[in-house]
Amino acid sequence: MALITELQGIVGTHHVLQGADLAPFSCDFLGGYAWEPLCVVRPGSTREVAAVMRCMSQAGIAVVPVGGNTGLAGATAAEGMVMLSLARMNKVVEIRPASRVVEVEAGVVLDHLHAAVGVHGLSFPMTFGARGSCMIGGMLSTNAGGSNVVRYGNTRALCMGLEVVLADGRVLDLMNALHKDNSGYDLKDLFIGAEGTLGIITRAVLKLVPAPRAFATAMVAVPGLAEALQLLNRLQEATGRAVEAFEYMPGSFIERHLALHPGARAPFDAPHAVNIMVEIGATAMRDAEPGPDGVVPIVTYLEQVLAGLMEEGAVLDAVIARNEAERAEMWARREAAAEVMISYPHRVDTDIALPLDAVSVFLERMEQVLPQIAPGAKHIEVAHLGDGNIHYSVALAQPDTALAETITERVEDEVKRLGGSFSAEHGIGLSKKSSMARRKDPVALEVMRSIKAALDPDGLMNPGKVLP
Amino acid sequence: MALITELQGIVGTHHVLQGADLAPFSCDFLGGYAWEPLCVVRPGSTREVAAVMRCMSQAGIAVVPVGGNTGLAGATAAEGMVMLSLARMNKVVEIRPASRVVEVEAGVVLDHLHAAVGVHGLSFPMTFGARGSCMIGGMLSTNAGGSNVVRYGNTRALCMGLEVVLADGRVLDLMNALHKDNSGYDLKDLFIGAEGTLGIITRAVLKLVPAPRAFATAMVAVPGLAEALQLLNRLQEATGRAVEAFEYMPGSFIERHLALHPGARAPFDAPHAVNIMVEIGATAMRDAEPGPDGVVPIVTYLEQVLAGLMEEGAVLDAVIARNEAERAEMWARREAAAEVMISYPHRVDTDIALPLDAVSVFLERMEQVLPQIAPGAKHIEVAHLGDGNIHYSVALAQPDTALAETITERVEDEVKRLGGSFSAEHGIGLSKKSSMARRKDPVALEVMRSIKAALDPDGLMNPGKVLP
Q1: Are B236 and B323 in contact (CB under 8 A)?
Q2: Number of C-alpha atoms within 13 angstroms, CB side, residue A62?
Q3: Smallest Cα–Cα separation from A358: which of B55, B368, B312, B96?
């Protein structure tokens, strides 16, 4: 095939994968989508990405960019299309410690970036389960979130500069390390979160922060979700906004986790309905130097603050991690979320966001709604409560597509009524296109379509994704 | 004129200004631009803005949105056009203290917002000289900066949701109070900083933060600008990133300020070349409760940190404000910047941004370049050093357009070489269009033009601005 030969000419023969080599590129992370790509092309530089795109543009064949392929929305499905893997563009180009910035190629794996900047006492403060394989380009294309958004924002907030190859092979140079730059439209943020439908992200400049020198991590039980928001605000004020994670696990989650891990410990002596895992990061030196008892001040301080809140009745119980093993135990419980969810085989999963003060309203409302539409169905959720992102799931007794659809729509109804979003951090891809059609402001959809048409008139960039 | 009658029908007779009432809308803040608008229309609601835009779109007449008209780039010039003032849309719609958000109409004056949220112990952490008259819509349209960007980011970083009326009167609803929302392209950030060329911002949801409970403010002399960046990083690590302002004033600035204000005090006993005004905000409660001596811990702590740095030789001298009067004295010196600049009648002004580690390189380089191209010319600058934004000005002996152009181009050459921007916080408007043509990535300009054409095909939204 002439196209394959042409691509081989650009990137080298063994960087155009075909046949059996396509296996890892033919399904998504969760196995919900499967497809057969035409081939996978692995350029080694921006220049090669541009040449590939010129070639594809002339051939009129669609291109799906792919990083670590760890997305949860089916955005890399590529039936009959060419997949463009950024994996060879994996250089941490330059770390500038004094300016707290790093320049990377799109194929850098998150874990590698963590290690590279850690040498300088710095941190790229974004992490989640897929850190060992997800790539920066994919994180930017999906505006990845996670547990530390409460302190550092989404991937978008950590990106200063971007290089993008457009559908026709032009290279858009938005690379800079500037905290202020008002020179025309903000094009960078248009490509972040666009899931590869507007162009291919090839390089980026990312912000770094001093790595916290110590952590204070605790499990805290509070009377209700409204009180949980009060707790968040009180902790932010007590620590000067040093809350790194604020994760909600209901009693049902703790129970299920214990059932799956008989050797695990319960977080508290008595079970509670509203369990929060909170982590404070000691960025300030004075919070991190161990006292004569070996305890770092941030831990002592969190203990004092929580003791005060218990006296007020704002906190029911609290346990502070006394060492790294106890901290790891707390995180292991939270990171077992996927396992806990999967233990219910027939599920309706969601990835919703709500204003912080609407989270409790939503969950209370669903307590009334769910028994009406799905009698006997069990709901289970975890939430990045510090940023209003709930993974609300409903376990069904058996597969039931119609009921699943009804539940999804009712969840979306309540979310919309409360000013929330049907898509918080996982993105749209293929999996949420129908929600996008139902729920997104129609004028916003029109504007998105006109921008898509302006930047990719032939519809070759990851077609069929995001836009309904 | 039929158009005037139609507009009067939409907004009411006395909300269409003509004749003498146009005076305050016929020139810009600095008096560098003057024009005669067709009329000024003052809608009272989003619905009225939409009706006005439908009317203008049918008539094919251009529209220039205007807030407080305090911009510095001529973006409100409107010769023969209709100006649309947001001043009547001045409601603080809702403050949600638990969620730390506020919903506002575009015509809310910054000072009013500060007062409204201050009642709740909260702060909208953006401020600058024009706070008594600038409006939120204008701040968003120009992505305003200022002295607190080092801690809180530009206006963009403080905006969660937006409502925009498009050129044809469609209303784009992006209003939300969500920390995570991955539902399609990030349209919000496209309108922020677009200077009214893509649509009219009518409402917004803004982030709030707990107001600092105390401040520690100091003047610090360091050996050089490279050491100033070290000081910034050391203070960020010492305080857990609580630096609210980090402002650079060279010895020449201090000297001129003293010459203009004979009653003012010098910051230090001996003059220094590199003077930094630093302010730490005590957000954490424990930093703000006065000790037995009446001094708040954050002040004592900053004193300790600076004393340590003096022992190392990283700091030459430091003076901490002991009370609010001394703090005000420090801020008054910095806020005299406009006056100090204007005291040189023939100036070439710039508003440039550099990577933090390139600021010292740029200024050293200009020490060599300036005497070659403008022998005897004096330069004077102030910088928001914490965010890399320098207002570098050159004072000429007499007006000299050709020399001014040469100086601007050489400054831009050096800025570009160092990865900086010719436009940091004031925007493009009319005043920087030629720099935009010369310096902006050509592909970026093409993409901006295609987006402009997609959203405003008839070119009616603030035509002639931003895009060269």
Answers
A1: no
A2: 18
A3: B96
pLDDT exceeds cutoff 80 at A1: no
- CA distances in angstroms from A440 to A234, A351, B180, B348, listed in the order given: 34, 15, 15, 48
Tokens 């044809």, residue?
B168
- DSSP 8-state symbol, B356: G
Closest CA to A245 of A178, A147, A339: A147
Q: Which residues of chain B make contact with A444, given a CB cutoff of 8 A?
A: 172-174, 184, 187
Of B166, B170, B448, the CB nearest to A185: B448
State chain A's mean pLDDT as an integer.
96
Q: Closest by alpha carbon to A78, among A12, A147, A22?
A: A22
User: What are the tens digits of pLDDT across the range A418-427?
Assistant: 999 999 999 9
Q: Do the Cβ atoms of B282 and B214 come closer than 8 Å?
A: yes
CA count, 13 A, side-chain hemisphere, B234: 19
Neighbours of A226 (CB within 10 A): 16
Which residue does chain A place closest to B432, by CA atoms?
A183
A455 touches chain B (CB under 8 A): yes
What residue in B sits closest to A98 (Cα-Cα)? B357
pTM of this structure: 0.97
Does residue A447 belong to the interface with chain B, where contact is any CB pair within 8 Å? yes
> To which residue do tokens 């850098």 refer?
A108
147-166 in B: which are within 8 Å (CB) of A? 149-150, 153-154, 156-157, 166
Q: Do A285 and B238 touch (CB under 8 A)?
A: yes
Nearest Cβ partner of B182 from A101, A284, A423?
A423
Using CA atoms in the order B44, B45, B47, B52, what is the torsion angle rounded to 10 degrees? 40
Please name the residues in contact with A331: beta carbons below 8 A apart, sequence gap of 6 or more: A217, A277
DSSP for residue B21: G
pLDDT at A334: 95
Q: Hey, which bits of B58-158 come out as E strands?
A: 63-66, 82-85, 92-96, 101-105, 122-123
Whole-number CA gyration radius for chain B:
23
Please provide residue A318's backbone torsions phi and psi, each rounded to the nearest 5 degrees.
Answer: -155, 140
**Contact yes or no for A170 and B145 at CB 8 A:** no
With vertex at residue B219, the alpha carbon angle to CA B317 and CA A121, rounded to the nearest 5 degrees, is: 80
Express each pLDDT in A347-365 by its tens digit. Answer: 999 999 999 999 999 999 9
B389, with CB counted inside 10 A (0-12, 13-18, 19+), is buried
Assembly ipTM: 0.96
Cβ A99 vs Cβ A179: under 8 Å: no
Beta carbons of A178 and B445 less than 8 Å apart? no
Alpha helix segments (H runs only) across B291-418: 297-312, 324-335, 337-342, 359-373, 401-417
| C-alpha gyration radius of chain A | 23
Decide: A250 and A273 in contact? Cβ < 8 Å: yes
- Could B98 and A229 be called an inter-chain contact, meaning their C-beta atoms sit closer than 8 Å? yes
Task: Kindly state whether A388 is in contact with chain B, defined as any CB-CB distance less than 8 angstroms.
Answer: yes
Closest Cβ opposite residue A236 in set B156, B210, B444: B210
Helix locations, A261-400, DSSP H: 297-312, 324-335, 337-342, 359-373
Please report the residues numbered 274 through 303 in chain B whose beta carbons come closer than 8 angstroms to any beta carbon of chain A. 282-287, 301
Of B209, B236, B428, the CB nearest to A183: B428
Q: Nearest 5°: phi and psi at B424? A: -90, -60
**Tokens 């204070």, residue?**
A216
Beta strand A378-384 with A389-395: parallel, antiparallel or unpaired?
Answer: antiparallel
By C-alpha distance, the chain B residue nearest A445 is B184
CA distance B178 to B207: 10
In the A/B pair of chains, how many CB contacts fall below 8 A? 289
